[in-house]
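New to this. Please check this fold:
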Amino acid sequence: MGINGSKKFIINGTAIFLPDQRSIASLNKEKKLILYNTASRCLLTLIEHAGQTVSHQQLYQAGWEYHGREATPNTLYQTISEIRKSLQQVGLENIISTQPRTGWIINKSIVIVEVNEKDPVELPAQPKKSSLPFWKGFTRKFFFR
C-alpha cells in the first residue's frame, strides 16, 4: 500500500485529507495541518478500512514495516494520538475509537467521501507564524551567537 497522489477524502463534510501532501484541512479554510509520514499512512489505512477494525499489525505494516522501519507499541499509540489531535484541530471529534486489544476503527457513523482526482480541491494556505518584534530578533542575532 503506497500513498496514491490521486486520493482525496472529505471526512464528515468538515475536513479534507490529502494523503500525497500529508495534509488535513478544514473545509471552511480556517486550519491546515501537515502530518508526519507515518501518521498520514496510518490515517489512510484507517480511512480505507472505515467501519472495520484495523489491527495493530495492519498499522505497523502501513506506517513503518512497508517502508523498512520498525516501531514500538508506544510509537504506534503516539501516532494514533497525533492523528486524533489533528482531526480535532480541523473540527472532527470522536472519529477514531479504540477497540481494546484488537486495534482502532473509524466510527461507522462517519461519512467519508473519496473525491475524484479531477475535481478541484482548494486548500487554505499554511497560516503564517507571527514573527518576532524587530528588536528581539536583532538582539538574539547580535548578542547571542
